[in-house]
């Protein structure tokens, strides 16, 4: 009888540990992918900035502050405290929404076509990965109601009635916002990964 | 009046006093300050530093104002002291990540204020961590080869544990006194090993870190470490010297050895042996005339189509050897076995063109093949001669017979044995023929391989004919069939082995190709005096011999050959299996074998006529006919 109990417990442990291992693996993949995307965004932005004149650069900096990224509607923790206070699931969902918002908009980013063409599919893959993580972690926890409600196409009117200056500005904004959002997702996913499995020793 | 004058002076003085003041000091609003940098050590707080401009002579105060993106609220820096002079420290509450800050510094004094240029920052991109802490360097002993293990910890403020910030590390090492550092990138690990250390040296180690998107930190404080002496310098030097000297010693020994024996070239590239084919002329090969060469090698006309002159043929001879006093007994050579088919090149023929028929070639195959030889002689007597002659044609000029039995033609009747594999003549029978001519002894020579083999046309046993010279006192009528595997040119046929003619079936009557060699062949000795042709082989075991006119071939040197004598009668077979022949005209010699056939004789039929041997007379031979030594 004892043996049966032991055997069953071992089996249960094995079964239960399985998704954890999978999730760890998925987390690692997601983190590495988003890091890559962030690097791409940085490269795009720096390329764009290098093509600008100095005057434009100053101007755009000013202008940028006045505008805002379209992804600002997504409420996300903006400091460490908040981030650490958020649950893993919340972080994952926020990441998901961020990625989703850029999935189609990234096609309108200026820059080298080679770089640009890589971004959208990678975003899609990342989204899928985060989705898997969410389902793995859901376990009955409810999704945030906001996530489904908000289905904006914030950049829908993006190219409407834009003059040259505005176009330049818009491009600048887009690139800057994209870069920032990627960094956000990277941070969230990293924190979530470390929180998810403390034994993974995030500090290596 | 005086009162007015005093007031004017006072006023003047006042004016004078005050006026220079106004001209000497200029108060102005402060100069424009400048934000030099903003840094965040851990992505949770940050600090900005500025550089003030001129103060305009008046006490100036600076204030930093900032505005976050998407908001118009202007905030003032709340902490000017934590980070030192001209700095502003943003604490955790005031710091927001992924938010653009617009920061401005204002310098103000009594006369006015001056704004600096605004700076936009995002905290995420201004992270520069503190240097790593607790850098420890230890020497780890790995057998005899120690290595350095460097370990450190992230700066205490950086929260790497929760994943908020990810740091990568780099360290650098140098020997004390060196100028250049050796860099090592350690990634995210906090442990690093350094190998290949210099014994007894002192190393300096430093570490720094960087967030994944940010700036490198400053280098940590230097850690010093001393490597113990793990390799004795002296010992290593001695080892080196020993190895080096051993190496030199080996080289010297080897070179001495090489020089004493032979040159290195011989050692590495041994000389290629030249061809040792009888009849194969190297010069021809070098001349490149393939035709000539092939002619030498190939039997050009086989089967014989044209009758050729008798004299030109290579004829097999039965060399008959007439002992001087007594009958010559045919002796059996002891080492016939050895020499049977041993035509090897113990005698290396320096002159490849010459045949060494004398030596091995004429050996009879003791192996028993010869036994069958004589079988059908009587049957084919009639044909023998024709065959012989026909086959003599084979030996036409420059035909070289290979030792491969090919030339042993199919003409041979079935019963015939081929005596030797090869070269031995196609003559199935052994005709004791006295060729008048020797066709070309030279040719025969050519046909004979020095090493191998066989003199074409010569059968193993032969009757060695001891030539009769003038001076010979050989007893007439006795013949000795000898096999000689003598070396071709030796003056003394040392190895002449005489095969006994066996009684019945073994009559090895070997026809030996024999030629008179005109000039050029310093063949010794033998002057056959008569050439005899075997007519038939009697049932009674008698060999009937017939002499052949053999005048032509005889060299001048042998004017007195016993040409007229007719040794055609076999006296009998000796107990020693020697075929005794006698001339008709001659009486039989006495009984018994000539005493001078002791064992010594067996081997050699020493030609007594050596001195008299005319160099021109050349019998090629193998079978040579030697004159018996006169005892």
Automatic annotation (TrEMBL), chain A:
It comes from the Eukaryota. GO terms for molecular function: growth hormone activity; growth hormone receptor binding. Keywords: Disulfide bond, Hormone, Secreted, Signal. Residues 1-17 form the signal peptide. Coiled coil: none annotated. One of its GO terms (cellular component) is extracellular space. InterPro entries: 4_helix_cytokine-like_core, Somatotropin, Somatotropin/Prolactin, Somatotropin_CS. It is found in: Secreted. GO terms for biological process: animal organ development; growth hormone receptor signaling pathway; positive regulation of growth; positive regulation of receptor signaling pathway via JAK-STAT; response to nutrient levels. The keyword Disulfide bond applies. Belongs to the somatotropin/prolactin family. This is Somatotropin. The gene is gh1.
Automatic annotation (TrEMBL), chain B:
Residues 370-398 are annotated as: Disordered. Keywords: Disulfide bond, Glycoprotein, Membrane, Metal-binding, Receptor, Repeat, Signal, Transmembrane, Transmembrane helix, Zinc. GO terms for cellular component: external side of plasma membrane; receptor complex. It is found in: Membrane. The chain crosses the membrane at residues 237-256. Residues 29-130, 131-230 form the Fibronectin type-III domain. GO terms for molecular function: cytokine binding; cytokine receptor activity; metal ion binding. It is a single-pass type I membrane protein. Pfam families: EpoR_lig-bind (PF09067). Residues 1-24 form the signal peptide. The keyword Transmembrane applies. The keyword Cytoplasm does not apply. InterPro entries: FN3_dom, FN3_sf, Growth/epo_recpt_lig-bind, Ig-like_fold, Long_hematopoietin_rcpt_CS, Type-I_Cytokine_Rcpt. The box 1 motif is required for JAK interaction and/or activation. The WSXWS motif appears to be necessary for proper protein folding and thereby efficient intracellular transport and cell-surface receptor binding. PANTHER family: CYTOKINE RECEPTOR, PROLACTIN RECEPTOR. This is a receptor for the anterior pituitary hormone prolactin. Belongs to the type I cytokine receptor family. Type 1 subfamily. This is Prolactin receptor. It comes from Echeneis naucrates.
């Amino acid at each position: 009888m004892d043996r049966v109990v032991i055997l069953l417990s071992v089996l249960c442990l094995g079964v239960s540990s399985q998704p954890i291992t999978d999730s760890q693996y998925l987390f690692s993949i997601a983190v590495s992918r988003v890091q890559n995307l962030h690097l791409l965004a940085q490269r795009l932005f720096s390329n764009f900035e290098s093509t600008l004149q100095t005057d434009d650069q100053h101007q755009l900096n000013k202008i940028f502050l006045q505008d805002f990224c379209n992804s600002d509607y997504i409420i996300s923790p903006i400091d460490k405290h908040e981030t650490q206070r958020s649950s893993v699931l919340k972080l994952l969902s926020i990441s998901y929404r961020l990625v989703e918002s850029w999935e189609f908009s990234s096609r309108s980013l200026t820059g080298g076509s080679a770089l640009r063409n890589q971004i959208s599919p990678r975003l899609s893959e990342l989204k899928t990965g985060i989705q898997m993580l969410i389902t793995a972690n859901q376990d009955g926890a409810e999704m945030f109601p906001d996530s489904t409600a908000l289905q904006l196409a914030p950049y829908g009117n993006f190219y409407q009635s834009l003059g040259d200056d505005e176009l330049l500005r818009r491009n600048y904004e887009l690139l800057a916002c994209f870069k920032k959002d990627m960094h956000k997702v990277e941070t969230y996913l990293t924190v979530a990964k470390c929180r998810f499995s403390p034994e993974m020793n995030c500090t290596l | 009046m005086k009162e007015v004058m005093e007031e004017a002076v006072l006023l003047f003085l006042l004016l004078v006093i005050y006026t220079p003041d106004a001209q000497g000091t200029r108060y102005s609003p402060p100069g424009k300050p400048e934000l030099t940098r903003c840094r965040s050590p851990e992505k949770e707080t940050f600090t900005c530093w500025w550089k003030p401009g001129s103060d305009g002579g008046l006490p100036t105060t600076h204030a930093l104002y900032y505005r976050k993106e998407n908001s118009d609220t202007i905030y003032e820096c709340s902490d000017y002291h934590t980070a030192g002079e001209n700095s502003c420290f943003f604490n955790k509450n005031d710091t927001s990540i992924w938010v653009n800050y617009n920061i401005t510094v204002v310098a103000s004094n009594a006369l006015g204020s001056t704004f600096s240029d605004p700076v936009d920052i995002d905290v995420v991109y201004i992270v520069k961590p503190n240097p790593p802490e607790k850098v420890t360097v230890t020497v780890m002993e790995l057998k005899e080869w120690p290595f350095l293990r460097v370990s450190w910890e992230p700066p205490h403020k950086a929260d790497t544990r929760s994943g908020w910030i990810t740091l990568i590390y780099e360290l650098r090492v140098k020997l004390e006194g060196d100028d250049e550092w050796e860099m090592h990138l350690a990634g995210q690990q906090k442990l690093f090993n350094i190998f290949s250390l210099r014994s007894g040296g002192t190393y300096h180690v430093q570490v720094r870190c960087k967030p994944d998107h940010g700036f490198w930190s400053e280098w940590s404080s230097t850690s010093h470490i001393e490597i113990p002496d793990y390799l004795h310098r002296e010992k290593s030097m001695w080892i080196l010297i020993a190895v080096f000297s051993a190496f030199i010693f080996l080289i010297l020994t080897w070179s001495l050895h090489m020089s004493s024996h032979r040159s290195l070239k011989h050692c590495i590239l041994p000389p290629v042996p030249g061809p040792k084919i009888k009849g194969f002329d190297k010069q021809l090969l070098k001349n490149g005339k393939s035709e000539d060469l092939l002619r030498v090698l190939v039997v050009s006309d086989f089967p014989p189509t044209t009758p050729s002159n008798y004299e030109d043929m290579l004829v097999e001879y039965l060399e008959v050897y007439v002992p001087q006093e007594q009958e010559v007994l045919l002796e059996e050579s002891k080492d016939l076995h050895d020499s049977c088919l041993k035509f090897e090149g113990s005698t290396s023929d320096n002159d490849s063109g010459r045949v060494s028929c004398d030596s091995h070639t004429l050996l009879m195959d003791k192996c028993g093949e010869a036994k069958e030889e004589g079988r059908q002689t009587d049957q084919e007597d009639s044909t023998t001669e024709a065959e012989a002659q026909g086959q003599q044609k084979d030996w036409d000029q420059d035909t070289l017979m290979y030792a491969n039995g090919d030339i042993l033609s199919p003409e041979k009747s079935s019963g015939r044995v081929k005596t030797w594999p090869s070269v031995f003549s196609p003559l199935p029978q052994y005709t004791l023929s006295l060729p008048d001519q020797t066709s070309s002894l030279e040719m025969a020579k050519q046909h004979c391989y020095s090493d191998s083999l066989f003199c074409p046309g010569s059968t193993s046993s032969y009757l060695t004919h001891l030539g009769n010279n003038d001076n010979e006192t050989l007893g007439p009528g006795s013949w000795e069939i000898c096999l000689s595997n003598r070396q071709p040119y030796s003056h003394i046929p040392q190895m002449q082995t005489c095969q006994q003619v066996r009684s019945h079936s073994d009559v090895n009557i070997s026809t030996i190709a024999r030629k008179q060699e005109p000039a050029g062949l310093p063949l010794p000795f033998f002057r056959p005096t008569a050439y005899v042709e075997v007519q038939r082989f009697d049932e009674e075991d008698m060999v009937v011999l017939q002499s052949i006119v053999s005048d032509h071939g005889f060299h001048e040197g042998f004017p007195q050959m016993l040409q007229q004598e007719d040794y055609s009668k076999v006296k009998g077979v000796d107990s020693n299996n020697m075929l005794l022949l006698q001339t008709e005209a001659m009486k039989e010699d006495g009984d018994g074998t000539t005493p001078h056939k002791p064992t010594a004789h067996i081997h050699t039929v020493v030609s007594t006529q050596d001195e008299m041997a005319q160099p021109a007379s050349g019998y090629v031979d193998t079978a040579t006919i030697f004159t018996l030594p006169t005892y």
